[in-house]
Amino acid sequence: MHNRASLGLALAIMALTAYGIFSALAWPLKAKLFPLVISIPLFLLAAAEAAWVIFGKDAPAESVEAEGIPRNIAMRRTWIAVAWALGFFVLIMLVGFLIAVPAMVFLYLRVQSNEGWLFSIVFTAAVWGLFYGLFDLLLHLPFPAGWLLSSLGLG
Amino acid sequence: MLDAFIQGLLLVVQWKAFAFMLLGIGVGFWVGLLPGLGGATTLALMLPFVYNMQPVEAFAFLLGMHSVVATTGDITSVLFGVPGEATTAAIILDGHAMAKKGEAGRALGAALGSSLVGALIGAAALALAIPIVRPLVLTFGSPELFMLAIVGLAFIASLSAEGARGMARGFLAGGLGLFLAMIGQDPQAGIARFTLDSMYLWQGLDIVPVLVGLFAIPEIVELVVRGTSIAGNVAPGSIRHGALEGVKDVFRNFWLTLRCGLIGTFIGITPGLGGSVAQWMAYGHATQSARNSEERKRFGEGDVRGVIGPGAACNSKEGGALIPTIAFGVPGSTSMAILLGGFFLLGLVPGPDMLTTHLTVTFSMVWTIVLANVITVLVCFLLLNRLTSLTAVPGHLLVPVILVLVFIGSYTSNSSYADILVTLIFGAVGYFMVIAKWPRAPLVLGLVLGKIAENYLYISVARYDAAWLKRPVVVALLIVAVAVVLYPAFQAWRGRKKASAHA
Predict the structure, then answer these.
(1) Is ipTM > 0.95 here?
(2) Model-level pTM greater than 0.90?
(3) Hey, what's the torsion of the CAs at B417, B423, B428, B432, to 10 degrees?
């Protein structure tokens, strides 16, 4: 698992630095010097790491996440965590923080944690109260209404 | 001088100034605990409130708030693996690892103890250095600042795992950080580099969303995967005893604490390097205190020295950063620039006046830093049971709360949805780095120092051509950088030699 992740990171760095080198060639010397000085050795080092993974003989190691937990369950839970994080992000963009925060907390407690209705409502209210009281009322941080509410004229 | 020193204390303990300091400490306490909501932002928010205050009251309020932010930021970093402040990320590596082993009390004790010692070192430096620091700071031009950035980058070698493979991965992570630091408008030619035609990226990547993603998202994923509390099934043990052990650890490693405190002070004094650098350099230095390769491997897995080093540096840098701000009106960081605004609001002019006419005000600042940190650490120790018991809260209750804090924390850095996207992207990068066993610290170091190094290199070359390489401080710093890079290899060689001698 960790070897595949290492290979993926090395290949990603190779792609990133190749893009960096390609882009930098079109710039004036002042702008391209540092990118080239960093990108070229980084590309070569990433290529060496990739070759190391592909041709080397590393001892297999357990991933941190899989310790004591079957790998398929660990993978499933990882995807669940990713889905909640992405879902929360989408919700924030659509309806803004003020609605997305209580919605996500409540849904997480009810759907993911199987908590009871009363506990979920009280816990959500407490988190929302803290969020609203501190960030909105006290600090006046700007939280836009979200694309959906704005487009409906509710923002 | 001694009169002014005592007068400074008496001014701070007057009821009005003391009450404002307590208010500031209260605000700073919560700001530090909340991820993303930085000390600089809060300083800016609180600045309008000082209009009608006397200078001593205003600085008691502002500095009382600012000087405790890093201390309570350590608590969030240790307990949840989420950086409470951008300047408290390094403590996660070992502090949070200790919390997961049921040693949250000890980690917090060490963090609080080292923070206090660090703050005292910074305050002492502020009190002692003002008359002598002027020539030192004035000898530092762009070549020296560039070399300081290089010394910082040299610590990548110490932050990497052992062996050629570990070193390669460390330098890959550091190189990636340097690459990411180039995103944004190039200050020399004005070219937009790697901005993907996005206005958001013109300013470059903000450190807060990157840090929050890199460290907090993998922790959230791990909490969901494990399905337990942060401390897992490990019994937390006696918390107070653990905290006491942590404090004892600070004194067992007193020289390390002192050295890291001095590193923080020095970085604080030097304008243009920023507070994030100090913690990583101190962490790198702490890893070098390992006596052999076995000890070195423990860093990142819960070595208390990895908590003490950044803890001390983080708080000592505040006293250090005040030195050029007060003495020359040269702010070393964003927070100090905002504080400088406070000086002008109150009708004070930084410079010689602060060392003569207003010397008591200057010393009142020293005392504010000392008293604010002592009070905060005492309050934290009183709350330790409650704070540490958070590591036993079931993960399924913590995850939504941490997720909310993480998203708000990254959003508030620029009030842009793109910040959250950056957090998610770097969350994925951090997750894969954890799985691949790549060190994350070098990436942060590269990101923090990349832009600084590039800017100062260009200024040095433009102003001095190649002659800047011959400046004595540059040569000295170059030697330090080489020594820092070679030290891990020397340690490994010494370890092998000892092992073969025993065999």
Answers:
(1) no
(2) no
(3) 170
